[in-house]
Structure formats: structure tokens, C-alpha cells
Amino acid sequence: MKSICPIDELCATQVAALLQPPPPHLVEEYFEHLLTTKKCHAIKVKQNGEFGKGVYANMDFREEELILKDEILLGHQHHSNKLDCLVCSYCFRFIGSIELQLGRKLYLQNLGVSMDNEGDVATSAHTSEDCCNTVSSDEENDISYVNNHEIMGDCVSFSSKTEVPLPQGVVESLLNGELKLPYSNKLPLPSAISCPGECGEGYYCSKLCADFDWESSHSLLCTGKTSESLSREALSKFIQHANETNDIFLLAAKAISFTTLRYRKLKSTRLKEQEKHTTSDELDQSNLSLLLEAWKPMSVAYKRRWWDCIALPDDIDCSDEVAFRMQIKELAFTSLQLLKEAIFDKECEPLFSLEIYGHIIGIFELNNLDLVVESPMEDYFSYIDGLPHPEKIQAGKIARPFLEALGDDYSVCCQGTAFYPLQSCINHSCCPNAKAFKREEDRDGQATIISARPICKGEEVTISYIDENLPFEVRQALLADYGFECRCSKCLEEEP
Ligand SMILES: C[S@@+](CC[C@H](N)C(=O)[O-])C[C@H]1O[C@@H](n2cnc3c(N)ncnc32)[C@H](O)[C@@H]1O
Hints:
This is SET domain-containing protein. Pfam families: SET. One of its GO terms (molecular function) is methyltransferase activity. There is one protein chain. The chain is of the alpha+beta class. The protein contains 17 helices and 14 strands. It has one domain. Helix content is about 40%, strand content about 10%. Strands 1-2-14-11 form a 4-stranded mixed sheet. A 3-stranded antiparallel sheet has the order 3-13-12, with no helix packed on it. S-adenosylmethionine binds near residues 302, 483 and 487.
């Protein structure tokens, strides 16, 4: 397909350099460094296998042993899920209090609020995680705690539907802290801290998370007063377009912002070290090397262009495939143009090429894991249920109307999608020796990989991206949606 983006031609050399796969020894070096930084010596990433990179055990594991906890490199909560769960925008743990989680949901439900996010053209969800979370407490001081009413969310629109039978006054007293639910102090949550840029959209569990998010990507993508974007209006238009079409664009924007900010940091460090450059040619040359360095976390990821690797939806006829892929490409271009208006940086121009944008979304399409964090509401109601008799009756009398008002959706998980640098190197097998599985104590967005059976040192660690118990043909069809034909030992054996 011919490019529709002028930057693709203008920056063809730099774009090609960014998309050039790094040599295997540099990839291994990158992951070695990452694992050392994380003090994780239990695994190794090697690029020598049949399927490109893979993760290998560097020790023996017993069954059900933790192999890896992987922090999110780039992740976000789905727009439509923000109504149900208030979580830290950086680590995705639930925040506020049981009363706030409950009151906020009932308040929005009462007003008939809906998220205007119905039109995803394509999604990038991958392996589902089983998860089971409880809550934790991590109170921070000296920072701006959030007025509960603020948390009603600027990200929502209103319709006239009213479903909640509870009086508004009761819901408001949950929100303003006047009404305390019985035993809610047994399940404390970290206080919600508002975004330092005052966008009213991001909330955090600690100042540390707020600062990390600000420095890694949010300072360019914040729509608040101290935003470092070129235009808050343009940014809002970009966000609206993503929410109306496909919120994967928000994650792609994070990747571009993340790389731009890394580039600026590297550049300022370099300028401090070496003040003078003799020629502008030399400067250009070294700017590209800085951009390549800033891009490294993305350069080592397995990638293809989004519109080339996205699975053809069932309702699209094969004869319309070319038109469908073109439509996806054009949608990405529209999104990129809006993002460019908002955060363009001339020194990072190649990042604003459609080739790079397409490959970034392709990374998410091929590698992302569903981000799932279980709600503390389940734990709260289970706690009440597990009380001894007289206390249970008393607490139940107060808690039951709230449970009934929430209905079936009383305990919706935080749901999103995330790119994990190490987990994404784990290959698929239909007879896996490990699984992505969250334990009681895993209460944030990190990916948790647990051994499914004993694994010996040197053995490749594999997980299943799908239900591995399905018949061969069904598995192959599902994995075709992930863009590959499975060649694991079980499939080779069962191949007709
Ligand atoms: C999430 S990535 C895993 C890491 C990847 N091998 C890499 O080099 O970064 C998934 C990709 O790895 C390859 N892959 C993983 N498991 C495979 C399998 N069982 N059979 C064939 N290809 C596989 C496919 O190309 C797939 O799209």
C-alpha cells in the first residue's frame, strides 16, 4: 500500500532505522539489563528459538511457583470501564475507599451516565488473565487529596436513564464521606490523588505514581492547565476521536509521548556533558542516535503494521479485505494527524510517521495482555457475608440495599490493555508450562506468570494465549487471529 502520510517520505531514512530489527545480541543485552535492574535472575530472554525471542527458565521451578512479575511499560484502563472503577492511572490499583467506589458508581448510575465509547473499529485484546485481588492500604501525605465530587469524572456524558432506587442523598453521603459502611475499614484503599496537571481525568494511589506517570508520558498528554502539549484543544479532539473510534490510539499516543520524553531527557543529559557540536550534520546524526536510544523499548518488541496484522472481522467478506485494511490505515492516519496537532516535536518527527504509528499499534495488537485488576467490592461483600451471625445480620441490613442498587455489576474488574516488556517475550504453547494468573496478593496492573507444572532450568517458559483444551482446528483458528500458525509440539502432533 502506498503511504498517505508525508512524514513517511520526508523521514524515510530515519523511519527505516527505527524499524530495523536490532541484532539478536543487542536484544539479549537489552533484556539482560532490564532483568538485572529488576533484580530478576529467575529467567533469561534469548533470541535463538524457532519463534524469535523466547523466555527461558534460569532456575528450576516447582508447580505453582512465581516465575515473573512484570511491570507495565504502556497500559491503560478502557474508557468504558472508567465508570465502574476508580483506579490509579499508573499502577491500576483501586483507590479511594469502599464508600467512594460504591458511591461513585451509584451516583453515575443514578444520573444515567454512559461512556461515549460504542464504536471500536478494532480491538487489541489478547490473552485473558484469571485474577483474584484483595485490597491494600498505602496512604501518602502532603499531597492534594481529591474532593470526592471531583471524581465524578470529566470523561462521561449524560443520558436520562435512571436505574438506582437509592435516594440521591444517601449516595452523596457515601461520596462526601459522611456515611461509613460497616467494616469498610477492614478493606482500606490508598487515597486518591489528583493529577498534578489538574486535568481531572487522572488519579493516583501515591505521589510516586503521579510523578512517574507525569514524567513518563502524561505531561504531554494531560489536558489540564500545566499540560506540556502544544494545544490542549487539539489534545481533547484527539482523545475524543480515540474514545469514539478505538481507544488503542490513546495507548499509541502514550508510546509516542514516552519516546519523545525519553529523547528529551537523553538530549538534555548529552548537552550537559558535551556543550559544543561542530556541524549541524553531526547534530542531526547524533539526534537520530538519541532517538534510536529513546525508542529502544519499542525497537526490541515484536511488531508488524497494525492494518497488515489485524485479523479480518467475521462480518467482513474476504473480497472486501483490501478495502477493510485501507479503512483501518486511514483511521490511524486521522488519529495521527490529530495527535500531531497536539504534541508534535520537530526533533522527533519520524515518530509522527504513519509507518511508526502503525507499527506501534501493531506491537499492541500482537503482544498486549488484558489488564485486569479485581474489584475490592467483591471482598467487601464477602467479608460481610463471612461475619459471625449477629454481626452479619446487622451489617447486612445496612449493606444489602447498596448491593441491590448495584445489581449484577456490583464488582466489575478494572479492565484495560497493557504492553509488558518481559511477558510479551513469552511464546505460546497449547501444552504450556506456565500461565498468566493473578493471586490474592496481586492487586495492581502488573502481569504475574506462575508455573503450571515443574520447569527445569534451561527449559523454555510458555503460556497459552487461548484455551488450550479446545480442538486443534479451533485453536488454530483462534491463533490465526493473533497473526500466527501455531507450531507447538501439541499442534505438530495433532496436525492431520
Ligand atoms: C507475544 S509474541 C512472543 C514473543 C516473540 N516470539 C518475539 O520474538 O518477540 C507472539 C509471536 O511469537 C510467535 N510465536 C509465539 N508462539 C508461537 C507458536 N507456538 N508457534 C508459532 N509462532 C509462535 C508468533 O510470531 C507470535 O505472533
